[in-house]
Fold each of these.
Amino acid sequence: MTETPAPVSKPLQGCGVLVTRPVNQASGLARRIDQLGGQAILFPVLEITAPDDLSQLEACTEQLDSFDIAIFVSANAVERALPIIFERRDWPATVRIAVIGQRSAEALEAFGLQADLCPQRHFNSEALLELDTLHKVSGQRIVIFRGNSGREYLADTLRERGAQVEYVEAYRRFRPDVDSAALVEAWRSGEIDLVQVNSVESLENLFAMLDEEGRLLLRKTPLLVVSERMFPVVGAMGFVQAPILAANATDDAVLEALIEWQR
């Protein structure tokens, strides 16, 4: 007698999720949302490109051995900086690598590298700075690979602890210039139940890319965020509901929060 296969769990059945990640970072999450019965609607609110000028990154590559620690603030920093570095040299064994999040650690592994320093729970600058190693950096040289802008808190704190800190621009972020009319129509038709955003910059870009009707719909839609630092911004923008908080920005954490919200 042929056994009836067990039903496949679809905990996100019928849930439309607006995924706002950059194109190269959205496909994995979107695929898993669809596999769990949801509908991922892709609307990137950030574009990632190479720096206008690579000379700073190239110069850093030549003197990489002179640093004690290299910090990659995001997976984008890893994926943009390492190809340039590896075109010219191997990674020096004496330079420890720190990352802020698990996604950055996974990006390192794709290049055959392991993170020496990574927070285990909260993936932000504050959690990285809590690690014992980064409390003992007096006299050390630290390079931070990041985008064209960002918080100064990490570098400022390391300098207060006695480190010499340099920034290297590994990529640029900017807001796409796209028409949001089709997105607003999908919203109006009830296809969007929740909006996923990774950062304050992403939320501000989404807000700027929408027309007045789209902004009204956005404020009424549940918002999933990955950091408590976004709460005051969400409140100031006039959202009707308190945001849903994922433990971090990994696909697993975002999906866990989505499933818990959908129950």
Amino acid sequence: MFTRDFSLAILANLFSFASMYVLLATLPLYVVAIGGTVSDAGVVLACFTLSAVVVRPVVGRLSDRRAKKAIMLAGAVILAVSSLLYAPVHSVPLLMAVRVFHGVGWAAFGTAASALAADLAPLSRRGEAMGYFGVGMNVAMAIGPALGVFLVGWTGYGSLFLTAMVLGAAAALTTAGIAEPRRAPGRGALQRGWRSFILPSALFPSAVLFTNALTYASVVALLPLFADEAGLGNPGLFFTVFSVVVLVLRGPLGRVSDRRGRVTVVAPGLSVTFVALLVLSQAQSTTTMLVVAVLYAVGVGAAQPTLMAMTVDRAGPQERGAAMGTYTTAMDLGIGVGSVVWGVVAQSLGFAAMYVAASLMGLVGVALLLAGAAAGRSRAAA
């Protein structure tokens, strides 16, 4: 499974996520520092994900018809360039424009990289392989936010943005070393119209992912501000603990889903995210925040990579780009919508009420998953 090319894909994915996560815990604070509000911070983060929502289906279609590696390279270059553009920006509207550009690069790289990883993964170990592919994200989250906070405190935002640029460049250099496999024959190459952008077979797992992404938005967009207000300590520690736990769980849970079925892993994971955010709503100490990090990591580690494997399962060999475009669009849409909605709720009702509301999305996801799985069994039996 760990061939040279698959290992390079994991490494490139790590660098791309590191270039984003190094900004994660500090960008909301930067928005406030230049005169923005809590809701502005949510909107700024939403610009990144919503621009990716627009771009991902197009990139998914292109990656089914063109070289995935070339799309990854273009995306990585944009990641590097956009990271430098933050430095001279000192107004919220301009920051939003940079985030839109950054989101285009993120969408291009991430969508093509996921599709390429699916091509490189062995069929019998797909769940496990996609779990390990996501390890780069978790290593980046373990290091990036804490590193970002350290850099800002040590030398200021300039060094933060320079570091993000270097990591984006490293993603480009690593991608250049990957040898893309030959395209397998399949009917997916004949898809036309909207189905070549949004793959119908990917809609069910993507809809479930959307509910999980709504919960994720409450954490990535607003936890730094909540931690600051409630005196919970360095929010980078949350992301470090979260990432280490997910890193440990990804491979084993992927193997379980390969053997016992995807729903068996996803349903408990979504349930745990409900519990985690409910506890977070009442957090008053660093210890509680870190306990939540462990719980939330178990939930996300079970749900997200397994839903990705389910999406690939339901797609043909020549539809994987569109499948990953649909899947990652749902993730970005959930984060984008959630960042705006939870920002407004937090500013209006407070962070505690916001996290209670966000926790309920875990239960909505479980209901949607079980209903969809039951409908699928009924169709198969008919």
